[in-house]
Amino acid sequence: MKKSAHNLLHPTVDAELIREAESFLRTCHQELGKSEEEAEIRVKAMLNDVGSRGTYTHTNEELVLGARMAWRNSNRCIGRLFWNRLHVIDARDCQKTDDVWRALLHHIEFATNGGEIRPVITVLPLVTAMAPLRFGFGTISCSDMPVTRRKTASWEIPLPYG
Predict the structure, then answer these.
(1) What is the pLDDT of residues 91-138, one digit of tens each?
(2) Residue 149: phi, psi to the nearest 5?
(3) Cα(17)–Cα(152) distance, rounded to whole angstroms?
(4) Is residue 6 classed as helix, strand or coil in its secondary structure?
(5) Looking at residue 143, what DSSP letter applies?
(6) Count of CB atoms within 10 A of residue 143's CB?
(7) Main-chain dihedrals φ then ψ at residue 130, nearest 5 degrees
(8) Alpha helices per DSSP H over the chain
(9) Is the peptide bond before 132 cis (omega within 30 degrees of 0)?
(10) What pTM value is reported for the model?
C-alpha cells in the first residue's frame, strides 16, 4: 500500500485536514481526467504550501469542480440535479470593499439573468470584518437540514461610498 504524503508533515499540522485535502485533490484530478503523476505533483505542492504558509489555495479548476461536487453530493437538495450547470465566479482577488460590492452586484445580475435564473456561486476571499449595510435573505440549506426547514442568514455588506 502506498504511503500517504501527509505523514511527512510536522506534527503540529492537523493530519486529518491534510488527509481531506489530499483526498479532494486526488478526486479532482481523477474527475478532470488528469494523470496520477499530475495529481502527485499537485499534492506535493499543497503539502509544501501547508508546510510553509499553514494553508494552500485551490486552483480555479479545483474551485469550480469542488463547488460542483459539493452541490452534487448534497443528497437532500433537489436542486443538485443541476450541479454540472453551476456557474462558479472566482472573486477571491477582491481586495477592497468596493470590489466585494461589485462582485455581489455582478452575482445578483448574473444569477437573475433577466428572469432566467441560473445557479451561481461567487467565492469571495475570507474577510474578518464587514459593515455598514445589513443584507438579509432566506435560504434553504441543502446539506444539513431538511429541505422544508428555512434558515435566515445576514451578511454585513460594505457600501462603496461613505
Answers:
(1) 999 988 899 999 999 999 999 999 999 999 999 987 655 544 444 444
(2) -85, 130
(3) 29
(4) helix
(5) S
(6) 12
(7) -140, 145
(8) 15-31, 36-53, 60-72, 97-112
(9) yes
(10) 0.70
